[in-house]
Amino acid sequence: MDASSDVLQAVSQRLDTFLAAQRFATLPMGEDAALLIDAAARSLRGGKRLRAAFCYWGWRAVVDAQNDASPGDAPAHDVSPDAADETAVVTVAAALEVFQSAALAHDDIIDNSDTRRGQPSSHRALEALHGANGWAGDGGAFGRAAALLLGDLLVAWSDDLLEEGLEQVVDAAARRRTRAEYATMRRDVTLGQFLDIAEESAFVVSPGAEHLERALRVASYKSARYSVQQPLTIGGALAGGTEAQLAALAAFGYPIGMAFQLRDDVLGVFGDERLTGKPTGDDLREGKRTALIAITREALPVADREHLDALLGDPNLDAEQIAALQAMIVATGGLDEVERRIDEYAQLAEAALADPLLGASARGVLRTLAVKATRRSA
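-> structure tokens emitted (378 positions)
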């Protein structure tokens, strides 16, 4: 399974198999329970599946390096990984996608987002279901409560899939290290999410000169490690990678993860709704204190800074106000500075890919994935 498209197809098939098993197991719970299973299935449709891809190719980077070091003349890309091992990594990659859906369900509740991937967010879809069924009570409250439970269910399912994948792994040390890497990922992204919502309130009491540092810390824990670095090291750990190999994967993954999040920050302000599936300027309405905002804010005169603070986080910002804020970000050089940082992170990652501890054929795919993560419009 060499092509990235084949990997993602295998992950999607694994998710379909898992969902079918969950539907069957919960049949005795009745039609109402099936509604939440259906919501879970909807949440798992679409998306870039970058985390799954980075997990698989982190695994392959270690497997290919092991093949490179093996006696014989056959090149690494001609050596097929063991079928059981490949089943394991596809299952673990699927677990990451389920965890991501859980994170998005919770994130959309926190941000009060109406849409996700061009469709109603989970809590809005469940709110609509409440109304369509003619049920009693507050539909909005039902939608939020049901989506909270949906996220919890998806977290539990991600653990189930992780353990199913690890059952295929013979090396006990690899199983332990994979669990440890996965646990670190769950902790970091949860705390990173808290740092994100805390910063939306705490910025008023923190010195302006610290806003960028604080924004980059949020980006690091909420997204950079979780989206790229940790999927890579989870895959590498599953393959039995050495400490040095996992460090090499992290040295590549962290700057790509930072560039990935900075690109998200740009799209959250300037992205085309038809491509992102989110309203243009949504981060401005949600009051996200991103690096883009911190850089812009620091460059503004005091009066304009106060105006920015007054507008940021207003859910009723209209198109004219969004356009004015976008123009402010461009005029201060905030957008150019973020683009410069994205390029700088990408260069750091490219340098890290020269590490011979990682398999040569996998490094080529990782380079392509890095471009997809940082040079995107959605």
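Strands lie at 115-116, 119-120.
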